[in-house]
Write a structure and sequence with these properties.
CATH architecture of the largest domain: 2-Layer Sandwich
Number of strands: 18
Number of domains: 3
CATH superfamily of the largest domain: Dihydrodipicolinate Reductase, domain 2
Helix content: 25-40%
CATH topology of the largest domain: Dihydrodipicolinate Reductase, domain 2
Largest sheet: 12 strands, mixed
């Protein structure tokens, strides 16, 4: 049987890994796919470098559109990244009747609805296992392995850079800025790490998982996103004393009305979270990734592995190539839908809940004047808001500094863990506590997720 011919757009870190692994495991991949899969054409602006990587027998060009225009190319791999030219090339490849494999989570999180609709209309596939959690096959698990389940929630450590930083902060007791510089020196963080440390990269990924899990359109613009830049080493220490670890989590949940049992909508959020230290995901260290999925039938499942890197991500790209090759001649109606559910299926109109309507529990740290009556005022505000306290620590006074009136006062930390409450209610309570003259610094608030 004639081999499938593949055109590769971009032969950087992941592209070179894809070419290398495909060549190294060619015989085994052929046995699994039922026919050969060959990268026969590569587009890259650095033609000389690309040619040195692929050698003879592969056509190398500097124009990606030449790959798309080649009638012999069956599948286009897009590894350019970003929202701009990558979107144009993917749409042109679809219009030309080419199947597409991509690792571009940013592109799909922002333009996925348009791209998947175009692919559905044209009868071609867009495969994107490598776009989420690198070599971990979480997309296939959600689309196929867990298809019998009503997914209840997903929570994931899906950015290796931030997990490395938080692990180092905990292990070495260092503050964020110090560890970020070390992460950059070691190559775990980019020179411009904004997308990672501000939670944007994780939000791209949880947006895609949410769409697959709940049969809703990709809605990155509605995700609540917080990064790790405001976290301090002392909060990580306090969390540890209380039996928790702090992780940057991407979370999506099916929110159910407690009285009627009717779906309220979908939660879609990325933020630092306290996770009980006994949970497996709390012990995922360094640059590793992990995703926990809760299904009604299967219960809790955990997916763990390398979330980035040349060959781990290449593993996912090639898995997609094999899937597309197997289904290349199949009736499009018999293929697994891009987002697991067929377009127009019931449930795809579920809204993403505003963050103010999300219910969760909280860690609060208040830097206060060490004076009589401060604690009662704080707890009184929480009681007025019907927010119950789960646990509390009050530290000994450890510093003398000026209060709002310029007077020298002893200062201390009050740490409070709450039970579940609505985010909007907590916003109001925090604003009232912050207005107290005895609260001397901005209140630190971190959400708490039991994941049980």
């Amino acid at each position: 049987m004639k081999s499938i011919q593949v055109g590769l757009l971009g032969i950087g870190t992941v592209g070179s890994g894809t070419y290398s692994v495909l060549k190294r495991n060619q015989a085994e991949i052929r046995r699994r796919a039922g026919r050969g899969i060959d990268i026969t054409m590569v587009a890259d602006l650095d033609v000389a470098r690309a040619r040195s990587l692929v050698g003879e027998g592969v056509t190398v060009v500097n124009d990606a559109r030449a790959v798309i225009a080649n009638p012999d190319i069956d599948i286009v791999i897009e590894l350019i990244g970003g929202y701009g030219i990558a979107r144009q090339l993917v749409m042109e490849a679809i219009a030309a009747g080419k199947h597409v494999v991509t690792a571009n989570k940013a592109l799909l999180a922002v333009h996925g609805t348009e791209i998947f609709a175009a692919a559905h209309a044209k009868g071609v596939m867009v495969a994107f296992e490598a776009a989420v959690a690198g070599g971990i096959p979480i997309i296939k698990a959600l689309r196929e392995g867990l298809t019998a389940n009503s997914i209840q929630w997903i929570a994931g450590i899906i950015n290796g850079t931030t997990n490395f930083i938080l692990s180092e902060m905990r292990n070495k007791g260092l503050d964020f800025d110090v560890v970020l510089k070390e992460a950059q020196r070691l190559g775990y963080a980019e020179a411009d790490p904004t997308f990672d440390i501000e939670g944007v990269d994780a939000a791209h990924k949880i947006t895609l998982m949410s769409a697959i899990a709940f049969g809703v359109p990709v809605q990155f613009d509605k995700a609540h996103i917080e990064g790790i830049t405001a976290l301090s080493a002392q909060d990580i220490r306090y969390a540890e004393q209380l039996g928790y670890r702090i992780k940057l989590l991407g979370i999506t949940k099916r929110s159910i009305d407690g009285k009627t049992g009717a779906p309220r909508g979908i939660e879609l959020r990325v933020h630092p979270s306290l996770v009980p230290s006994k949970r497996l995901i709390a012990n995922v260290e360094g640059a590793m990734n992990a995703v926990v999925v809760q299904g009604d039938a299967v219960g809790t499942t955990l997916y763990y592995g390398k979330g980035a890197g040349s060959e781990p991500t290449a593993s996912a790209v090639i898995a997609d190539l094999v899937d597309v090759t197997r289904l290349h001649t199949a009736d499009p109606a018999h293929r697994v839908p891009h987002l697991a559910f067929h377009p127009g299926a019931p449930g795809d109109d579920l809204p993403v809940l505003p963050m103010a309507d999300v219910v969760t529990s909280y860690y609060l740290r208040l830097r206060v004047a060490d004076q009589a009556g401060v604690l009662s005022k704080v707890t009184g505000i929480l009681a007025d808001a019907d927010i119950s306290i789960d646990a509390m620590l009050q530290r000994e006074a450890d510093e003398i500094a000026a209060d709002a009136n310029g007077s020298q006062v002893e200062q201390t930390d009050i740490i409070i863990l709450t039970h579940d409450t609505r985010e909007g209610t907590m916003n109001d309570a925090v604003a009232r506590m912050q207005a107290l003259p005895s609260v001397l610094q901005p209140i630190t608030r971190i959400r708490k997720e039991e994941l049980a």
